Amino acid sequence: MKEQRNSGFSRRDLFKSTAAAGLAGSAGVASAAKKAGADNPIRQENLQPGTRDWMLTKTDITNTEPTELCRSPKIEGYCSATSVSAGETLQVMVSTNPVSEFSLDIYRTGYYGGTGGRFMKRFDSLQGQTQPDPEIGERRLRECRWAPSVEFEIPEDWLSGVYLGKLTAKEEGVQSYIIFIVRDNRPCELLFQCSDTTWAAYNSWPTWEWSLYHNNKNGYTGFKKRKKWSTNAANTGWVSFDRPYANYCQEHLVTYPKSVGSGEFLLWEFPLSYWIEQEGYDVSYLSNVDTHIDGPGLQRAKGFISVGHDEYWTLEMYENVRVARDAGVNLAFLSGNSVWGVIPLMSSSEGQYHRVIRREGKFLGEELYQLLQESRGQQQEFPAGPSGAKLMGGRTAGIGGGDWTCTRPQHWLYEGTGMKAGDTIPGLVGWEWHGAADPDLPGMEVVAEGPMKPDKSQYSPHAGTVYDGPKDNFVFNAGTIWWAQGLSSPPGHVLPSHAHAKPEGPDPRVQRMMKNVFDRMLG
Fold first, then answer.
1. pLDDT: is 102 or 171 the higher one?
2. Of 166, 184, 202, which marks where a domain is finished?
């Protein structure tokens, strides 16, 4: 089933495009408007009854050496597409070992009175089967070709959002997730881009050696085996969306087996989605793949948001977001290590579009690319992409973390926070951050800057930045994967930690800064 897109607006989309009223009251407090009624689709949706039944209660994960990378072999699955729109068909591929009947309960994630989810649909008494681990293909590609267990059409009344399917095996009651995004084409206030290409890059399913970070010698080219690091794309494998998501592979950051199957959404992105819907902003959701495919569709929003760990972008994504910025769309990079790795989106072996990625380069820009060549005295092993800093305001600077440090308390970002120059928000920056603000961007202001740990000369200080777009718009770069940790702590949420930093959870100053950013986007 190949992905197809229709860039036109449906009558349903136009009906749902009513303008949102201004947000009243302080961050985190329900306004009179929200209590009184639903003046946009998100507020209307969040008046529906919620439930915490979306949360997993029994998991059974298999640990694999040399670290705690986990899968859920008793029941696990994946979807045929990263995102779907109303009226399109989604297939869900499931494996149970041992063979067992199973159920699939689908929930839309959101605020819903603090419960975090709304029940949408149930498939019961489904016959499971043990589906095979895929063979090792070209460039170490592990690509499942499982038979579909469930196939259904997305109902017309399912609002755009991030949807979790809770798989439950009847035999032992073991559970895991599948995840997909429902997108739409309606005009909206904010576009929330999930970082699903990065989820796929870090997915090591079925065992330790199969993320984008493993090379031909089965060495992990990241945190555990730094000596084997290589920027040469030829030394790393390809990865497929046609796999279940194993438990998140960087276990030194967070241990949360009950997120297995959900990629990185529950860890880094859900606290922002939960808060946005709590505050009643009219938000629509899309995947990295959607940003790649439909550049003009980005211009239907007033603000575009990059969230969490948003490392891997295609050249088309970069260009589409740049064009949206130049057309007047505001950008917010509430993320770290973002726009760093250049990838293509390739077809699966069965011809389905946008199902395989590989590492192809870095968003360094020609100037930095040449400097690296000269400093190392050798040809770089990767091609230069356009500069990530020219889009975001800064670029990836380091791994570790530290405090958010206010530098311009008079800036509109800090209005209502009470922060003064030098005031800090402990642990908000990490585990990867942005620095090296580009001074040539129009109206560039460094609104936060402070030292990070570990204190190494090659790691620049963190820099939170704001610069001017060409049409009275702006670009805010928080420059930290952990920004959303300061906004909310939804049900089941676990705070991450690093040897050098740990966020402390929701903070009214972060909530107010976020409100200032979004309200300024909306005029």
1. 102
2. 184
